[in-house]
Amino acid sequence: MIRRILEQGAREIGLEIPEEHIQAFELFADQLKKWNRKINLTAIVSDEEIAVKHIIDALVFAGSVRDGERVLDIGSGAGVPAIPLKIVKPAQPVTSVDAVGKKILFQRHVARLLKFSGFEAVHARVEELCRTRGHGFDLITSRAFSRLEQFVALAAPLLVETGRLVAMKGPGVAGEIRADEERLAALGFEIVSVTPYRLPFDKGERNLIEIVSRKAA
Known about the structure:
Elements: H1 2-12, H2 19-36, H3 47-62, E1 71-74, H4 82-88, E2 94-98, H5 101-113, E3 119-123, H6 126-133, E4 137-143, H7 148-155, E5 159-169, H8 173-186, E6 189-198, E7 205-213
Parallel strand pairs: 1-2, 1-4, 2-3, 4-5
Antiparallel strand pairs: 5-7, 6-7
Helix pairs in contact: 1-2, 1-3, 2-4, 3-4, 7-8
């Protein structure tokens, strides 16, 4: 079921998923459903919603990641977009952080099954990570984690000066951008692009919002 939905959904938005990646996504989805029966990892539980709202959504983000960028996924939850990104870009250094221990345990479990190299799942609050990994990442992302202002304030100490922030947001983000733009400027950051896209099977509208330091712009 996951395979068919992934193949059809990817074609709908112009993506092609190689066989080895589909097999890895099937394993990820299977483990997510098994773990979710015992512990609450995600409210997204049907095959179609896992395929579209977790995996394909993450693949759109993965297309914006440049080779070699050290990526941090803040508030990663069940590992999205961190795990799908690592599946399609195995050489990419990827770190995820979440304050909920059971979600990090799940991510580490999947990482072992898929034999990831260069993947780290950290159980901590973002503020704690700043003390040990300050200015250590080239690209920091979050998916519906917080308002743009809060995301930037939390992520800024972890970002290299020339790095990028990419917020994954749902529909209606224009109002949030208008409300937070001046606050972002006060933090020394600015929005340089907003890329809207639609998920397949009419599963909703999404946006990738790229934010950089005004020094790097």
